[in-house]
Design the sequence.
């Protein structure tokens, strides 16, 4: 069945470091791909998305490109801040034009000043 | 705009007891979801409602879990009897209805259940 695999954490970085969180997927057809973020004490919220191959989603300095050839959707940010400390979830939407999401296991990012 | 409200935030029960969680979605959102998030895993969909009808409950353990959304607004998820493996965070989410399948779900803060 469809699935999402993302790198295990925690990922610990110093402020202004470059961030990559890897995400790969297995799916039939062409799913839409998402990154959700969960800040401490808050609910999950959508960070960015891409709906077709070669699309680039971006928000708050984060970017991810939908790579069909490598079935990947890696999250990147050029310079992380302490406020980026959170759990990041990669997800795909399956089942046609619905909002049913399959999530990865999440990656904890800790940014130190 | 008020977000998705869930209660209680925390609940501790003994196995074989029952528990209920409540969710009030964002006003006007037709679709409501319950997810289960076990420690170290990603959220897993339990049930999806469109208004007051069930769209998908294929992963809901129906021998012990039940959910309802009687008036198409708020929803209750019940577990009876609880097992140790039900210890998890239960997340409620909502999204706008038909024609807005953007993949954006709005999540509540979750209800953390510990079964002893």
Sequence:
């Amino acid at each position: 069945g469809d699935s999402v695999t993302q790198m295990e954490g925690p990922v610990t970085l110093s402020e202004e470091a470059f961030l990559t969180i890897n995400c790969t997927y297995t799916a039939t057809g062409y799913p839409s791909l998402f990154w959700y973020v969960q800040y401490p004490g808050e609910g999950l919220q959508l960070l960015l998305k891409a709906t077709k191959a070669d699309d680039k989603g971006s928000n708050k300095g984060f970017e991810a490109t939908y790579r069909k050839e490598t079935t990947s959707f890696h999250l990147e940010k050029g310079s992380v801040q302490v406020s980026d400390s959170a759990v990041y979830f990669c997800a795909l939407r399956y089942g046609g034009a619905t909002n049913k999401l399959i999530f990865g296991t999440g990656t904890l990012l800790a940014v130190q000043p | 705009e008020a977000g998705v409200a869930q209660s209680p935030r925390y609940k501790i029960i003994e196995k074989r007891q029952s528990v209920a969680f409540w969710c009030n979605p964002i006003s006007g959102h037709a679709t409501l979801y319950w997810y289960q998030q076990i420690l170290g895993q990603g959220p897993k969909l339990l049930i999806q409602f469109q208004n007051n009808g069930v769209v998908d409950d294929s992963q809901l353990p129906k021998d012990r879990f039940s959910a309802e959304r009687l008036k198409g607004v708020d929803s209750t998820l019940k577990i009876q009897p609880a097992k140790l493996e039900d210890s998890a965070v239960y997340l409620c989410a909502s999204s706008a209805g038909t024609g807005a399948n953007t993949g954006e779900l709005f999540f509540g803060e979750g209800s953390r259940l510990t079964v002893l």
